[in-house]
Design a protein that fits this description.
With 216 residues, the protein is mainly alpha-helical. The protein has nine helices and three strands. Helix 7 packs across helix 8. The longest helix is centred in the N-terminal third of the chain and has 30 residues. The chain is globular and about 45 Å long.
Length: 216
C-alpha cells in the first residue's frame, strides 16, 4: 500500500472533524459563554424594540438574542453567517444601561456581525479542545486586540451619531463586576473579562477605547 493511500483515511477523518467543528461552532461558543435562549418575543420589549429599529434603519439581519445571567455589563456576537448570527448580552447590561447606552451596545454588536464573527466563533469552539489553548491564545489576542475592538466602537458610534452613549456604556462595563466566563470565549466579548488578563491591563484598554470615542 502506498503512503498516499495509507494516509487517506486519516486525512478524511481530519476533514470530517474540521467540518463538524465549524458547523457546531456557534452552539459550542454559546455554551462556552453560558448563554441561555434564544429569547422568545416579549421577554425583553425594550431590547427587542431597539434591535428591530437598528436592523430596520441600517439594513442589518436581525440576530437571535441570548442572555447570560450575570451582573456584569457586557455583550458579544457569535455566528458563522450574518443571517444566522446571535447577539449575547448580560443581565447586568439589560438592567443597568439606559436606552441610549443599550442602543449603542446593540449597534456595536451588529457592526461586529457585519464585519464578520465567523473566525472568532470557530476559534472559541476550537479553544475548548484539550491542549488547544496555547495554540489559539495568540490568534485570540489578535481578534480581541485594541485596534480591532476600537475600530468596531468607532463604526458603531458613527452609526448612532452619538459617541457619548457607547463611551458611557463602556465606562459602566469597566466599573461593573467582571464576567465569570471561560477563557475560550473571552475574545468574543465587548469588554474582555478581567480574569483573562491582568485587571489593570483590561481596564486600561477599555479606558483607552473610551478616550478614542470622546475624540470623535
Amino acid at each position: 500500500m502506498s503512503p498516499l493511500v495509507a494516509a487517506a483515511p486519516a486525512a478524511a477523518a481530519g476533514l470530517l472533524i474540521a467540518v463538524l467543528l465549524h458547523w457546531r461552532a456557534p452552539r459550542a461558543a454559546l455554551r462556552t459563554m453560558r448563554a441561555a435562549g434564544p429569547l422568545t418575543k416579549g421577554d425583553h420589549p425594550r431590547l427587542e424594540n431597539l434591535l428591530e429599529g437598528s436592523c430596520t434603519t441600517h439594513g442589518f439581519h436581525e440576530p437571535s438574542v441570548h442572555v447570560v445571567e450575570s451582573p456584569a455589563i457586557n455583550a458579544a456576537s457569535v455566528g458563522l453567517r450574518r443571517p444566522a448570527a446571535h447577539l449575547v448580552i448580560t443581565r447586568g447590561a439589560l438592567s443597568s444601561l439606559d436606552r441610549l447606552e443599550l442602543e449603542a451596545v446593540v449597534a456595536r454588536q451588529l457592526c461586529a456581525i457585519r464585519r464578520g464573527v465567523a473566525f472568532p466563533t470557530v476559534l472559541a469552539s476550537v479553544s475548548r479542545l484539550p491542549g488547544a489553548g496555547p495554540i489559539t491564545a495568540g490568534l485570540a489576542g489578535r481578534v480581541g486586540g485594541f485596534d480591532a475592538v476600537s475600530d468596531i466602537d468607532v463604526e458603531a458610534a458613527r452609526l448612532t451619531s452619538f459617541p457619548p452613549a457607547l463611551a458611557s456604556a463602556l465606562k459602566k462595563a469597566a466599573d461593573a463586576p467582571s464576567l465569570n466566563t471561560s477563557r475560550a470565549g473571552a475574545h468574543l466579548w465587548m469588554v474582555a473579562p478581567q480574569r483573562d488578563a491582568s485587571e489593570a491591563g483590561a481596564r486600561s484598554s477599555t479606558l483607552r477605547r473610551i478616550d478614542v470615542l470622546r475624540e470623535i
